[in-house]
Amino acid sequence: LSPIKAQEAVLAGIWRVQHFNADGAVIRDTIEVGEVPHMVRHDTFANTDQVLDESYDNNNPEIQNAPSLLFELADKLRSYQTGNEAHIVNLSLLPLSPTDLALLGERMGVGPVTILSRGYGNCRIGSTAKRNGWWIKFYNSQDALILNTIEIVDIPSVAIAAPEDIADSADRLNEIMEMYR
Description:
Blueprint: E1 4-8, E2 14-20, E3 26-33, H1 38-43, H2 66-79, E4 87-90, H3 98-108, E5 113-117, E6 122-127, E7 133-139, E8 145-152, H4 163-180
Parallel strand pairs: 1-5
Antiparallel strand pairs: 1-2, 2-3, 4-8, 5-6, 6-7, 7-8
């Protein structure tokens, strides 16, 4: 799966979806309407597995709390079934060193999908290289990280537009389009 960036428009459930080639050039640019872009639900984890490498350098004093998180995440990834309730690890509340965070990032890996949403503030939702693994970061208006989580779930709830919001967006989009007809 080539890298993909999806950004929700000002209207909830209206998505701009860009597909990139290996050189970072946009090869497809589309607008989709739905709770999430189609490929997010169907293709994000097509070539991934649920096995998380729990190894680490136990002689590195900078590694403090990542090992227990690796164990927890590995267990949840292994046992996750489609439709299960989300398992959320709130990294913001844990004493993690920069080395801990780097180790978690290295083991989870980076997946092909990045979703940018401003529905609940500025939010960056990234798929990981592990099936059903998502890394979610919320930022305040000064672009400072205020919430940092890893979620094991089909699609994070923060990424999904509600049906009533999509209906409102469709009405608003029709109003906008009327001005151009």
